[in-house]
Specification:
By secondary structure, this protein is of the alpha+beta class. The chain contains 4 helices and 13 strands. Its EC number is 3.5.2.9.
Amino acid sequence: MSAVSPSIQPLGECALVLNVGADLAMQRRLWAAWHVLEHRLPEVEWILGMGNLTAHFDPLVTKARLVTRALEGAWARSAGVELAPGKTVTLPVRYGGEHGPDLAWVAGHTGLAPDEVVRRHSAASYTVYCLGFLPGFAYLGGLDPRLAVPRRSDPRLAVPAGSVAIGGAQTGVYPLASPGGWQLIGRTDAPLFDPYRETPGLLAPGDTVRFQIEEIA
């Protein structure tokens, strides 16, 4: 992934988007800016994305130029900020078979044997770039480029909770049953989201995730 020049663009009349590119160094700066802005302008909803930060605001309450200046200032001051390291989470995964029905397709698309897909997927350490799509769904960067595959042309109406999947150059785990279009290669029983926990989501931006082979079907 390559960085692009940071830019701030309007998204309708009630939102502004700071785009910086989705490499890890830029994402770390976004984390720093996000933490600052949530405290500085709590009346604005700040949504952290992969390579971007979106501000949703009421223009009758908060002027767009104030949000723009806040974004510019937070981004400028984010250079060199050292954040506390995130936690490391290891997720046991049953790969292939009924748990990963797209593993054979991923192997065929990449030209790798299924066992090699699993080996490469479980060998990497992944960084949580951001959360989204579903409560507790973490977008994980660090996928082996050989494993990058397109999303399904016919998304499933129901993906089981815990499904480990690949979509483009990212991997992730569905924390809840939902529709989805990523390629399913395995499943974990780890509870990624529990609304009754003090912190419902298991993962947060900046955390490190590793996948541990429990079984290959």
